[in-house]
# Entry
Amino acid sequence: MKSTAALSAVEAGVKILRRAKRPVCLAGRGVVWGGASQALLRLCEALPHLTVAATPGAKGAFPENHERYRGVFGFGGHAAARQAVTEADALLVVGTRLLEQSSGDFHPRLREPGVVRVDRDHKRASRRSGEIFVVGEARHVLESVVALLGTARAAAQTPARTGASAIPRYAGPFALDRHVKPQALLGALSRLAANVPVTADAGNSMCWAIEWLERLHPRDFQASLDWGSMGFALPAAIGISLARGGAPAIALTGDGSMAMAGGDLHTAVELEIPLIVVVLNDGGAGMVRAGCEAWFGPDAVPNVDYRYKLNLFQYARSLGAHAEMATDLEAFEQALRAALVRATPTLIDVHVDPSEVPAAIRERVQGLTSSANELAVREGGGMC
# Structure
């Protein structure tokens, strides 16, 4: 970001942020891959009124227990984040293409004046009225903004948990009729594996994770957001474990994805790495069921539940992995604690309540039937 034009755009953006009473930063995956998380924390020190939201693919780009964090904006996101963007008098949008599901179905506030966009690719500049577009790496641009503001502290530290996390806390019941509530499972995963990277498969697994999983560090959450590939989580977690020197990694998946790509567990067994596979086993194609019911109503499509349920406990053992089955939250927590200290792969087959539907599914159907879908067709999908 050495050009005069880029510097001039940064200065213009700083003027907007200085004047704002309700500034919001929308952090995309460019913050994660650009190593800009610490710079964003310093920006919060420099702008006392700045709050932060993240796109679905950028969970953890900003600590989700930070007092300034408002949650995920877009697909599977949080009401507080949407409200913050709606009410913002200045928006700093960093490292996101603002496609359908990372823009909250093309939220109208993003097309109004007072938007400062930062992206390394000049081709993503738009012709939106009043938008300031800064071409540059996220970290370099944010550091320049902080320097111009001139009030940042020397070092940014993540504050202690305030008890007001943007990620909801599930109050119960934690299980019903020998089926664990997915919300409770994600809460336990957040508590017990706060510093362990998690990958999530397409389907309900990803939806539950975006809304209910708390992440504190960048690159600790990965999902196939652009392609929505089922079978992504397991090999992705294997790669993360290897890249981190054999550290534990968690693959959050469903029984449908395991039926497609579960054999990759044998690769982890051969590699002798501490992979943990958490299966949200709802006994069928849960996302298909939920989407069809939200769109067409109950009983409008054939039953998508499996007539022959998958016994993933036995499957994992046949591949050489340790396996546990959980039908209540306490059993899951015990299995997860043991897996986190085990040096070899573990699969935890969690029977989850199939009647629970992620909010993202209903919102997605509503979005597809709204006038905003015209923009989706014209500008494209994607979540980063």
Q: What stands out?
A: Residues 4-19 form the longest helix (16 residues). The CA atoms of residues 165 and 340 lie 24 Å apart. Confidence is low (pLDDT under 50) at residues 152-161.
